[in-house]
Known about the structure:
- This protein is of the alpha/beta class and 250 residues long.
- Helices cover 34% and strands 21% of the residues.
- The chain has helices spanning 16-24, 44-49, 66-76, 96-106, 155-160, 171-182, 210-223, 232-238, 240-247, and strands at 3-9, 31-37, 57-60, 81-84, 90-91, 111-119, 125-129, 151-153, 187-198.
- Strands 1, 2, 3, 4, 5, 6, 7, 8 and 9 form a nine-stranded mixed beta sheet that branches.
- Helix 6 (171-182) packs across helix 7.
- The protein is globular.
Amino acid sequence: xxxxxxxxxxxxxxxxxxxxxxxxxxxxxxxxxxxxxxxxxxxxxxxxxxxxxxxxxxxxxxxxxxxxxxxxxxxxxxxxxxxxxxxxxxxxxxxxxxxxxxxxxxxxxxxxxxxxxxxxxxxxxxxxxxxxxxxxxxxxxxxxxxxxxxxxxxxxxxxxxxxxxxxxxxxxxxxxxxxxxxxxxxxxxxxxxxxxxxxxxxxxxxxxxxxxxxxxxxxxxxxxxxxxxxxxxxxxxxxxxxxxxxxxxx
Length: 250
């Protein structure tokens, strides 16, 4: 089973190397690594070149945002399974991809997801996101799996569509609504930590925009012909509190 991993980057010379190492050091070998760079102006590509013996495809050209870059990576992928890890983030340990491959081998599933952590530049854990077992109704109560913990069959993109590029940083949320709720796909949690998010990335630095983001998330339901329940946003905000609490005991 070939796993395609996509890393999108733009001017990440300070933090991309740990991302590259976390993928290249995986014990699972059947990996197609794809780098999609937005035509970086710093030393990002020079660092990528150091690992080119482990990288199948390098794309470097201007793009129309992170979801356009991800879509480029998906279209370049040839693996059975597709996942992603953005520049600056890290796979949790060297066994992650082996666990994902075993998960898909053991279960007749379309999509897998797991747990994640948010860490500082000094690797201090700030948030621990332990995902529950999948139930479609959880999304109506504000749950969403960590985006980069999601691995899925590549063929699904042609059937159900790529990432939308017209809704800013909420493209991942709309994608999850479409794949986890709108369509009846086989989704199963992998009870393991998959990803370490770097504090300061798009998904961890927009707290000051939290209310406007929730309005966009509600509209993501409507884009798919669904009406979000009135209680979704309060539950969604409340779900972050236990993540901070768990980090205190790490």
